Amino acid sequence: MGVVTSPKQDRSRATRQRLLEAAVGCLAEHGWAGSTVSAVAERAGVSRGATQHHFPTREDLFTAAVEYVAEERSSALRALPSQDRRTVVAALVDLYTGPLFRAALHLWVAASNEPQLHARVTELEARVGRESHRIAVELLRADESVDGVRETVQGLLDMARGLGLANLLTDDTTRRDRVVAQWARLVEESLSSSS
Amino acid sequence: MGVVTSPKQDRSRATRQRLLEAAVGCLAEHGWAGSTVSAVAERAGVSRGATQHHFPTREDLFTAAVEYVAEERSSALRALPSQDRRTVVAALVDLYTGPLFRAALHLWVAASNEPQLHARVTELEARVGRESHRIAVELLRADESVDGVRETVQGLLDMARGLGLANLLTDDTTRRDRVVAQWARLVEESLSSSS
């Protein structure tokens, strides 16, 4: 962006990123109960003091982490070269089967029982959800002014979320590939007939 | 079934059912961390000793509870009078937005981090998943010998699971109703054209 930053600012930003990535990894592997600030600081190789400087509370750290990684993934998805719709459907579903989804899932489920997380995670989920929807509409070249198109795309993202959940305990890749191929076909037909 | 049971057996069965229902309620409201055997015994009004007689371990109690309630719901669904496919789609999605889904979700997520739960919940999820699929095929009068039909139905259940997750932190009813109406239309068209 041409903004000049000092070496100190660069180091601070790099530390912050290391913490955010460690937090997502920790959440994905150990769940909310196993994800303490100390565990993340140790995983990132950052002192406890520096960690608290960046993120005063556990809630700050983990909501920021899920948001940061979601934004990284969104940017990567937007940067993809233009592709046919079936490939786009597969790429969208892939967003829901990796460590980011696992981390987000642990955070959502924890938030359903922890009042201090609930408001923040609800707000985060709404923001990430809107952003995923915008990206999906763009990549699928879907015309939302046509009746039902918005809901077709939303249902596709709901299906992707459900496929992510089905992949939590076992490797569901083989079944998922077949489901995605079929629904990519149905979504393609539906969007083509409505454009 | 015409099997003669003694009053003692009847009482024992009633106690077991009370425990199972209390366990699902506890899991849905408080999550895995808040769901101890003592909390369930108290909620059900059953002594700790009687509870341990029925369910020697915490894992026994909660996996049995999710399975029991899933079976109750399946039976209720099978007992529905024959309906048009769009109504069936809505009824299937409803299965994933109530306390049973919340309880199962907490159990799945806990199992992803707790080795002693993992194998049992994986096996339970596979069994409940196959049963939901069978019921969906039957109610939708879907002909799985036709290419793609099996995957259409599976994707619909994956979408329902994703809608359940979207309903975890906020009441998603308004959005969900629109998505379900549109996907019911897509499923209806797809199944009609392939029969």
The largest pleated sheet of chain A is described as: none
Q: Which spans of chain A of ≥5 residues are poorly predicted at pLDDT below 50?
A: none
The multimeric state of the shown protein is: homodimer
Q: Which outline of chain A best applies?
A: globular
Describe the model.
Two copies of one chain form a homodimer. Chain A has a domain at 59-193. The first copy, chain A, is built from nine helices and no strands. Chain A has helices at residues 7-30, 37-44, 48-54, 58-78, 85-94, 99-111, 115-139, 149-166, 173-193. In chain A, helix 1 packs across helix 2 and helix 5 packs across helix 8 (149-166). Chain A is globular, with a radius of gyration of 19 Å. At the A-B interface, helix 6, helix 7, helix 8 and helix 9 of A face helix 6, helix 7, helix 8 and helix 9 of B.
